[in-house]
Design a protein that fits this description.
Shape: rod-shaped
Structural class: mainly alpha
Helix content: over 70%
Radius of gyration: 46 Å
Number of strands: 0
Number of domains: 1
Order of helices and strands: HHHH
């Protein structure tokens, strides 16, 4: 078999032109699986972006709730201290009333200590009325 060099060169040039055309033409025609892969990759990237946005939104919500919880905890602590102070004041008043009752039983006529106790009780009652929660 004898090949003509011109025919061989022409065949080689046709093969090169076809190869270059294949590279220049949209590769999805020749490799459709790459296009499907890119579509899946884009879908995964979109899903990742949505997941990150959701995560950021949830983190912001958690941060807001943590701040609110901290504020509520501080308010609860403040109210607990106020209640403890009020309970202590009530106990002081009860002791004072028992003292006054004892004085009234022991001393039927008012004396200076009884008047002092009554004045102290009145001052304490006025102070508590002013400190009562609204």
């Amino acid at each position: 078999m004898d090949f003509d060099p011109k025919t061989l060169l022409a065949g080689l040039m046709i093969a090169v032109v076809v190869a270059v055309a294949a590279v220049l033409v949209d590769r999805s025609v020749f490799w459709p699986e790459d296009d499907a892969f890119e579509q899946r990759l884009r879908a995964l990237e979109d899903s990742l972006a949505r997941s990150q946005a959701l995560r950021d939104s949830l983190q912001a919500d958690i941060d807001r709730r943590y701040v609110r919880l901290t504020q509520l905890t501080a308010r609860a602590d403040s109210l607990q201290r106020a209640l403890s102070d009020r309970d202590a004041a009530i106990l002081r008043q009860e002791r004072l009333l028992r003292t006054i009752q004892g004085n009234l039983t022991a001393y039927p006529l008012p004396d200076d200590s009884l008047l002092f106790d009554l004045n102290r009780l009145l001052r304490e009652a006025r102070r508590l009325e002013g400190a009562a929660p609204r």
